[in-house]
Amino acid sequence: MGETPEWFIYFIGFWTVVLVLFMSVGGFFMFRKFLKVLPQRDGKSKLDWQNYWVERSRDLWTEESKEMLQTLVSPVPGPFRDIASHSIAAKIGQLAVESGASEVTKDHCIEGYIRATPARDHRSLISFLEKKQIDYSAYRHLLK
């Protein structure tokens, strides 16, 4: 039996590193999803609450507010857009229901969008709102 060529050892090493990196990234996102499913102190998970607010506010949504939601989630990459849309819609629905509104308004959409967006993304959120010429001045205090 001959000795293994040096290039083959490097080839195996390279693919080992690539596979470990891919599995680490995938595991990170699976773990984040797992944390959302864990029950909180009230017995419901974060996803349960999102589903609750979406269902509770379903009849309050107008075509205009649905279009506004689609506009607001348009910068989110395609594969993640449905998840982002659901979590933002839940926050908007919660605001509308808790305020006793008869329908979801543009103001509910803007405030819910800002509240549902993580603080690390506020800089891009501001530039997007300014690019689309959406007035968010009433909610500037929510931005960090």
Structure explained in plain terms:
There is one protein chain. The chain is mainly α and 144 residues long. Helices cover 67% and strands 0% of the residues. The protein is built from six helices and no strands. α2 (46-56) crosses α4 (78-99), α3 (63-72) packs parallel to α5 and α4 (78-99) packs across α5. The longest helix has 32 residues, at 6-37.
Order of helices and strands: HHHHHH
- Compute the average pLDDT: 90
Radius of gyration from the alpha-carbon trace, in angstroms: 22 Å
**Structural class by SSE content:** mainly alpha
Total E-strand runs: 0
- Largest sheet properties: none
Low-confidence stretches: none
CA-based shape: elongated
- Residue share in helix: 55-70%
Beta-strand residue percentage? under 5%
- State the end-to-end CA separation: 65 Å
Number of distinct helices = 6
Pfam families: DUF2621 (PF11084)
Transmembrane segments: 7-31
Protein name: DUF2621 family protein
InterPro entries: YneK
Question: Which descriptors apply to this entry?
Answer:
144 residues, mainly alpha, transmembrane, YneK
Set out the fold topology.
Elements lengths: L5 H32 L8 H11 L6 H10 L5 H22 L6 H11 L5 H10 L13
Helix pairs in contact: 2-4, 3-5, 4-5
InterPro entries: YneK
Keywords: Membrane, Transmembrane, Transmembrane helix
Pfam families: DUF2621
Briefly summarize what is shown.
This protein is an all-alpha fold and 144 residues long.
